[in-house]
Every structure is written in structure tokens, then in C-alpha cells.
Structures
1.
Amino acid sequence: MHSLPATGAAESSLEKAIFAYNKKQYAESAAQFKSICEAQPSNEIAHYYLALSYHALQRRREALQEYNWLLKNGSSDTIRNNAQLGIKSLYARRDENSVRNSGTEGGGASNGVKAKSADRAFPLTAAASATHNADSQPPADPRSYFFTQINDPKYNRDASAYNRNCGPTCLAMVFKRFNKYPSNFRSTDPQYLIQQCRILISGSAGENSDTNAKQICAAARGAGYAADRIDTIEEIDQAISQGRMVIVVGNPFKQGSYGYRVGYAPFEGGHFILVTGRAANLYVVNDPYYLQGPLNLSSGELQGFISLYKGKYSGNCVAIGL
């Protein structure tokens, strides 16, 4: 399984622009994506990221123009649907601004009103709380074992810009969390762990082939862990209550999941994430493709995520513990 948009040849200019966007350097990414669109007018990934960059910069007119281009020219239902959601979000933000401005003129909007509006802004990036409930499992701060599968100076400086290492990265985070490694592992460097987990899972260090839940489960058991393949939210909850973590496969753009909320470019196919525990009524998730650290997902978002293969295959999640 992988988490990469289907972009064809990975042009260096597109990689650099995506990297700038992921680092929230929206003015820079907008300029770069605009240049790409001018040179490659049919590059829908560049148009989508340009829309997201304009949206984040609150350049509503330009964002709307790009979303409309995607509605007309997008090659998949996924990208057209997300363009529609982007337009809806633009109008929602405009309405919120109107309400806030009205409140200010009537005596000033409270800090609470401003914070609520900002919380709904696009793209919303939710960070996991460092403090968990007493019944949250595992108790360790998920940031202490968070890795990215793609290059990031904070979370994995040695990774490539494009790969299909979401599954190996999730397993590497499990090993880091429980501090239990196969005897032949010689380092806890993120990229080294990911490469070794890739070999453990698939028998090869090549990072552009898909992995699956069956392989991950077998690799975890081979490393001395208790691992079981499961499917449902109820089974995920049970595993968490037992102090286990769950590697979950799905798609962030299915049925109200979180991809649009955090500003992902849409993609087809599957992606592995690691459910580390619960915080209040939310699931704490380490997504190896997300560069800002742990995420909080609602039950609905997680349910939407795992709906990708619901009814098609069984055992697409892997519960892992000591």
C-alpha cells in the first residue's frame, strides 16, 4: 500500500513545490505551483496544490479559479469531489468572517469566537495532545516515536521525497515505541529502521513496491510481537484497551475521513497509518505521510478511512503488542 498521488514522472520542480507546501510555506509553494501550471497546463496535481496554497493564503478569488479548473478538467471523481469541498469551505470561511466582522462592529468578538473560526480554517492541522487520559494506551507521547516516510528535516532527514514506505514506517514506529527490535537491527535512526522493516516485511529494500497487512503481521510476529489481523472499529478499540497499537489501512479521502481537513492532495489506493491510542474521545494517530506530527481523528474520520476495503477483504488492520 502507498500514500502517494499518482503524478506520473516525479519532476524535481513538483517535488520542491510539494515540499514547500507540506512545510506550510504557502506563498512559496503558490509561486512554484503557478510556474508549473504555466509550463504544464494539464498538470492537475499542480493545479490542486495551487488551489490549496491560495486557500491557505486566503486568496479566495485565485483559489476559486483553481477549484473550478479542477471541476472542469479533473480526471477522477476524487479530485473533482475535493474541488467541490474546497469551494464549499471557501464560502463557509467567507460566512464566518462576515459573522465575526458583524460581532466586532456590535461590540467586539470574543476570543472564543475567534478561536472557533480559526479552528475551522483550511487546511486545518490538528496536533495530538501531549497529555492523554488515564485509560489512553500506550501511555508514551506519540511524538517520541513519530517518523515520516518522506523527507523531513525534523522527523526523517534521510528519506526520499516519494516512496511507498507507509507500512514499513508504521512498523518502525511500533518498534520504537516498545523499544523492542530484531537482533540484527543496529541503529534506531528513522530511515535505517524503515529500511530494515521494509526488508523484514517484503524481503527487499526497494521502496516503490506495495506492502500489505498479511506481510506486516508476519513481520511483527517474526520480531517477537503478539500480532493479529483485525477489521473493525470495535476491534481497534479492544486492541487499544489491551495496550496494543494498530496499523490501519485505508484512504484519507473516503467517506468523510481526514485527508481534505489536513490538506492532502487526493490519491487513489491505500495508505497505512498507526493508531497509537485514545485521547478523550479522539483517536491519536501517527500518519507517516503527514509532516506535522501526530493527529487527532474522530471516530467518523477513522471509520471513513478504513472503509476503503470494507467488505472486500478481511484482516486489513494489524493489532500489535508485547
Note: The first helix runs from residue 12 to 22.
2.
Amino acid sequence: MKVSKAIRIAMALLMVLLPLSLLACSETAPEAQTAAEETPTSVLALVTAIPSTAAPTVPDTSEEPSSEATPAPTVIPEATPDVLYNPLNGSVLGSKEDFTPFAVAVNNNEEARPQTGLSKADIIYEVYMDSGGETRLVCVFGGNLPDMVGPIRSGRIHHVHILSQFPGIAVVTVGASEKKGYNFYEQLGKAEIGWRSDAVKGPNSSLFWRDDNRYAPHNCYADLVKDREVAGDYFAKYDLPRFFTFDQDLPGKKGPGGDYTLTWFRKYVVTYEYHEDLGGYYRYYNDQLVVDAGKDIKNPDDDINVVFNNVIVMHSDYTYGGAANYANFTNTGSGPCEYLINGTYSKGTWTREKYNERFTYLDEEGNEMKFCPGKTWVDIVYDKPEQYLAKK
């Protein structure tokens, strides 16, 4: 194949120019290197753009430790369970199951004294029985139950006015009034009290006995420990009620109100005597000290002196009706109160808006009263004693 003259000339020129071109490249290489050194950013850009295949650099851990102190770890305290208190006396309960409230209608006739079981009662209420000049006690136990309590008598309608404050309470009586308008059993239903022990009407009449050291009707007793066993899980259905407000730091002193006298009838005068060393009051019936007779009711050496840490004197209107002049007191609304607490005397007011609520005790400024932990005696007396005493 013939090569044209033009092609031959071009090839000749290429042979001449190629060596010259290679020589020029070798002479300009240092200048290019210098330019590269003067523009390092282009190199860094290139390095970051190309993944490295070199082994990763291991950080140096041989540095000296910091001189700063390491903070102590935060300690989170363990959660503590809520402390439960007996709402009747302010003592600590091991569990809710330890609160098993019972109420017992206790005879207060002179032939029935000294009674048994009073030293274990948290609250004792005293009320007029009838217009014949006698009172009866309603003893309320929160959980420290006596294995002998009495002498026990019949329940009355105004006893239920007191018991309706305590949801889930169990009631122990020897019969009860059933007269129209004064029916104890009907009133228990209104108060929603669901467990009782009754020596006359039943149920649980087998839990009672009579002590031969006294004559009827001043000799009927019961064992509340056995009653609690029979009641079973009755108490578990109810929450702990709110009742008194207690203050562990109330000061004790012998001051106004250290001693106090209350006349129920002309021939029945009560005296409270404060003992600072005991932190409470002895109670006297016509100069006879109130004691717990214990199980051996004929043995004075078995007697236990009973100290009351708080005394409440509630004033209310009483009415009487029925063939036996059954007593009843106004139990809603409000009325005057007197308080004996740790050797001090003060006045205030009791209030209760409606049935089945607790009585609330207020001081003279209208604040809820604070009581000493321990036992409380509540006297519910006639609001106008001078009128009542004029009839006696």
C-alpha cells in the first residue's frame, strides 16, 4: 500500500518533536513538585477523599492518671413502707391486720365495780342510761384485746350513735332494747355494723359466761380473743378509719386542769387527778379509784390502776322516752367541749355533720384538737347540768 507524501512528512515531524517533548517534561517536574508543596490543601482533600487501607492507630493509654477525685456514687435509699398507726390510741401497728376493733357495753352499776378489761380499752365512753341516775360504759378496743371483759350489759340506741363512728367494728352485748323508737338492733343496721356477739339474742352466745363471785345481772363476761377468732376475716374488708389527731410532742405539765371534778348526779361525782410522772389522769368515782379488776375479781391485789392520757367532756342534750325512760342524746350538729390533756385544761367544740361520721373535736379557734397518744375517756354529759340535777 502506498503512503502518501503528506503522511510521510507528518511522521517525520513526529519523530523529531517527540524527543523534544520528553526533554521539556523532565525539566519542568521540579517546578510542579514545588507548586504541590505550596498548596497542601489539595493533598489533604485528596487524602480524606480516599479511604485508607493502613492499620488503625491505637490511642496512647499510658498517660498519668488525673489528679481530680472521682465523685462517690449516688446512693438511693431503699423505699420504706408507710407506718401504720392505731387510729384510736396513736400506737404503731405491725400491720393492718393488728387493728380489730371491738365495742363492749360494760355495766357501771356500783355492784359491777371494779370492772375487768378497762386497762386494755383505747377509748371509754360514759353515757346516761335512763332517768334513774345510772350510767353505762361503751369500751372500744383497737386490737389489744382482753381475754376477760365485763360485766357486760345490754346495748342501747345511743350506744350505736357512738359505734357508728367506727366502720368495721364488732359489737358485744348481753341483749339490747327493742322498744319502738329505741330498737338497738335496727339502729345497728342503719350504722352498717355487720358483726356482733349477743349473750341473749345471739349470735355467738356460747362465748359468754357468768362469774359466781357476783350475782346477776352484774356477772356476765366474754373473751374478746375468742370473739376475734370467730369473727375471722370480717375486719379485713375495712380500711383503717381516721379518728383522733395525735401529737407525740405535747408538753406535759401540772397546770390549770391538772385536777377536774365533774358532777353527773348529786350522788355521783367524778374526779380526774393528773400525775405528771404517769403522763395522764387517775379517775375516781366518788373518791373510789377506777381500776381494772383483772381475772380474779375478788382479789384486790390483782387490780390494775388505769391511766387516761386524754379526757373529753362532751355536752349534749338528752331526751328520755319509752316505758323505761331510755336515754338518747343529740349526736349531730355541735356542742361545747372541755379537754384535759397532759395536765392542761381547755375548751372547744364537738361537731358532727351526719350519722356514720366521726365526732370532730375543735379548740376555741376552730382548729382540730391534738391529743396525746394513749387512752382516752369521753364523758357525754347533759348540756344543762343544773336543770338535770334539779330533777335528781
Note: The domain at 84-389 is CATH 3.50.90.10 (YerB-like fold).
3.
Amino acid sequence: MSMREGMKRGAENERSRRREEADRAPSERVRLLTSAATTIVGLWLALSALPNPTTAAEPPRAPTAPTVIIVTGAAGEEEFGKQFTAWSDAWRKAGNLGGARVVSIGATNATGATPAAGSLTDLGRLQQTLAAEAKQSDGDLWLVLLGHGTFDGREAKFNLVGPDLAVSDLADWLKPMRRPLAIVDTSSASGAFIKKLSAPGRVIVTATRSGSEENYARFGDYLAAAIIDPLADLDRDGQISLLEAFIAASHKVSEFYRSEGRLATEHALLDDNGDGLGTPPDWFRGTRAVKRATEGGTPDGLLAAQFCLVPSDFEKRLTPAQRQRRSELETTLSRLRDLKPKLTETEYYQQLEPVLLELARLYQSVK
């Protein structure tokens, strides 16, 4: 064979090889893309574990510290008073661990004694505290209600020493808020709070699914423990989100009634997509909602997963802008998962790759 013929045949072989690569099955390209994405995430994990030499010289702007308002309601009986005080202490401990500004209302007078004449009632203190809070901030605002509740078919209320807190009043006081807001109502009949309080940018957690579940709710006990319990960290990121605490506490409630052989009289709900419907804990697989209240609606849980009262060391290094962008990217990932059955494998992974790449770059950029 002449040198020219050899070169010609070599060129034909190369063209043949390139055609074979171009004709590869989509599944093979998907496999390669998936491998690349896995490598990207693996590289980020390795990089994030290394010390950053610029940390001391270029400290990032820290986010505004969260505010936690803990409201302990009228106990009615001494035994309930002891429990509510213990729950309040647990929330206060968590807030202090997370560097939050903690405000306690009602804890020193939870047995039902009438406030002294001329003194500010617990209801008045709550209104005053909320009015003094910044209406726009990147700092999370937590409102935690610990106690009993009632519902008369029209208005849901949280029982306080003195005048009770009506959900319609609370809704009015919270209207000006344009900041991340979590409302945790652990009282009986608290499910009736969701409809009037639900709004975009808010997380609502209630101990019951309706106003008709009026028996004492144990959910508050388990939630106060779960908010700092490492066993509640489902995604193993070193911190417990409000979503994870909600799921863990709800499972504990179910275990209690099952072990006691009793019919459950409370069923917790979480609402954070603004539709006012809420999602029960058994609609989640891990931290992802696999069912939703309305067809095609945004699943609950995405915002609650961003609320961490005691953030990890890594979380503390995120700037407000980085936290916001991460939230947007994770929402995009969730929507992609929902679209997956309607996309080809190639389409799915082509859309997935840039999101994973940006997440990896974001995490690598954290100082």
C-alpha cells in the first residue's frame, strides 16, 4: 500500500469514527452528562472542604440576624404551664445558638392570672413587638405560638392571658411585612390559621389540619425538640431546617398515637407556596413533596427548607444574595424534577446541567 493510500484510508477511518460518535444513542450522551454533573458536584464538595485563604482578609457581609418572637399562651392548668414553659425554653435556646434576637412574651404569666391594671397585656405586647419590627429585611422573622387555641366556626384564636389573639388581627399586623417570615402555631385548632395567614414568602406550620381538631396538641413538644436535634437533619447538611423539624415532629406525633393505640386527634400541616391549603407530612419523601394540593401547583416545602434557626458554619458564610440565588436555583431544580416525565432524557439533562454548574460555582465562591 502506498503512503498516499495509507493516509487516505486513515482519513476515512477517522471520518467513520466521528460518524459513530455523532450517532451515539441519547442514553450514552445522558450517561456521559450525568457523569460530568456528578464530577462537578464531587469537585465542589472537595473544594468546599478546603480552607479558603482569603477568608480572614475578605470577610463576606453577614446576613441580618433573625428575630424569634416566642409567645407562650394561657395554660389553664399547671401541668400545661410547665410543658409550655419547657417548649419556650427550647425555642429560646435554639434562637440563642443561632445568634437570633429572641423576644419572649407571656412566659412569666402563663397560668392565666389577670394582668395588673394599667399594664400592657400579652396581646398588646405582641402587637407592639410586631409593629417595631423591620418591615423589609433579609433577616428571617419567626413567630412561634405555644399553647392552646380555639375555633368557633368563624374566627380562630390563640389563647393568651387576657385578650386572645384572633387570626384576623394577626393577619392585619403582618400585612406590612416584606421579609422572610415563618409562623409556627403549635396550638389546638391551629389549622384554621393557614387560610388567613398564607402568602408568598411565608411559611405557616400548624399542629392541626383544621379548626375542628380542638384537643391538646402534642406537636409543639416534638417540634421544640426537633429544631436542634441532629437526627432531624434529613439531608445531612449540618443544620435542621423548619421543613425537616416539621417532618420529624410529625412522625413523632404519629408514633405516639400508634404506640398508645389511640386515634390521632391532630394532623400537622405546612404551607409555604401561598395557596393556603397546606401539605401533610406524609406527602413528603425525604424533604421533597411528592404530592400537592392542586394539580400543577408549586409544591410546599421549598421555602421552609431555607429556614434554619441554627445555621451551619457553611450557611453562615453565605451572603444574602447567595442565599437568594441558591433558593432560586433549588426551585428551578424542583420544577425540572416535575417536568422530567414530559422530557426526553437528553432534554432533561441538558436543562439540568447548567443549574448544577451554577450551584457548584456558587458554593465554590463562598468565602
Note: The two ends are 63 Å apart (CA to CA).
4.
Amino acid sequence: MSFRKTVITVLQFIGLFVVYLGLDFLRGRLIPMSREISSAMPSSAAEQMPISIFLYTLFVVLVIMYAIKNSHWHGLKLIGAMILVTTGFQTFMEQIDTVVFMKAFPLLTPIELTKIIIGEVLVMALFVTAAVFILGKWKNRNNEIKKQEPLRNKSWFWKIPVLAFIYMFLYFLFGMFPITFPEVKNFYTPQTADLNFIILFTVAYIRGILWVLLSLPVLYMMRGKRTETYTVLVLLIAMIPALGLLIPGPLMPDMPRLAHFIEIVLSNGLFGICIVAMIAKKPPVNSDEPA
């Protein structure tokens, strides 16, 4: 990368960093949490908040920048795909778990959960739109040719239920890690002791299918290099859902929050690798890109 391109990339990053912070600030003002939740914020969490928000914003901006820059899509198509993927990964997929374990969050009412979902979707939709413009991906300036079909011909359909089982296995395997800590176990019990395991397994399986379906736009929009596809999908599917756990708050104590961060990064990261390996088409034999 030339010096000029490096300077431009740095300036783009700074601009997007400021945009995201501004949008997040406005969300807090326009869609505030209830007084009960705000007053429950521990003093230690308030002290950690500035550095936590800085790290969270840093990683979110870097991940989304990398995905957009390495996409061969542009304009509204790219904006729509990135909004679907980021809000799907960050908000809807993770809030399914919140609903299942709702009893562990007595302060979180359905109204407050709805406000969280609306706020996250609005921030991410506006940020992604701004990022596409700032990164110069509104128009096809590089005359990029259409990429070949990115998925294995027909054979990938039957792999979706298989991948759902893999996700369910990873979900419960890595889900055992947080409950090895007494603080985490005490946080969830006895409030969630009456959860039906059949419901848990069913929800996990459905989530596995949804993760795969939400990953398809990523496979289609990448330039075709397999290493970039692996990198972008793993970053989006692992980091976007987990990064919010870097920010302390009144709903979840530090130990459960950090334990879940590690759990999601590892389990979703491995699952992202499985998705690309099983349903993304390998490059041609004469391609310079390693399989």
C-alpha cells in the first residue's frame, strides 16, 4: 500500500470512528434506558465505560471497514447486505438468547429490550450507509467484474441442517465454559433452573440455520479470495455479536460478561470457519488463491 493510500485509509478510519461515536451518543439521548436500569449501573462500570466504549468502537469500525473494503459489491446492494448481516449478527441473533434467558435479567422488560433492538439497528444502519460512502464504495469505480458463483453447486443446500447441528454442538460445548465460574452460575440460577432443555436445543438448532442464512450475503459479496472470505466472515460472525460484551453495564456483572465474550468469539469463530469450508466454492485449480 502506497503512502497516499495509507493516509487516506487512516483518515477514513478516523472519520468513521467519529461517526460511530456520534451515532451511539445520539442513540443514548434519543432512546434512553429506563431510570431503574440507569440507577443500577455500578460505580466500577461507570469508571470503565470510556475505555470500554473506545475499544468497542475501535473494533467495530475496523471489522466493518475491512468487510466493506474487501467486497466486490457497491452502492445500495452493499449497504443492504451489510445492514442485514451486521444487525442480524449483532442484534437479532444475540437477542434470541436474551429472550430465552429473560428471567436472568429482571430489570430488562420487553419495552426496554425493544428499545435496545431499535437503537442498535438504527445506529448500525446509519453507520454502514456512511461507511459505504466514506470508503468510496457507493459507485463501482474500479470496474470490478462480476464474481463467479461463490457457493458449491446445489450441494450446499443439504449442508445447512448439518451446519445447524455443528452450531448446536459448539454452542453447548463452549457454553459450558462460562458456567465453570461460580459468579456466572449464580447469575443464571435459580432464575433459569426451570428452562426446558428441549426448547434450548430447538432454539440452538434454529439459530444455527439462521447464522448460515445470514452468512450467505458475505460469501456472495467477497471478491473471491478464499482467505479474505474466511477472515471477513469470522470477524463478522464472531466479533460483531461479542463486542458489545466489552462494555460494562447494569444488566450483566463483569465475570458473566467477559466469560460470554470469550465463549462467543471462540464458538462463532469456529462456526464461521465451518460455514466457509463446507458451502463456499473452492477457487479453480489454476487460481493463485490457495484452497
Note: The CA atoms of residues 122 and 224 lie 30 Å apart.
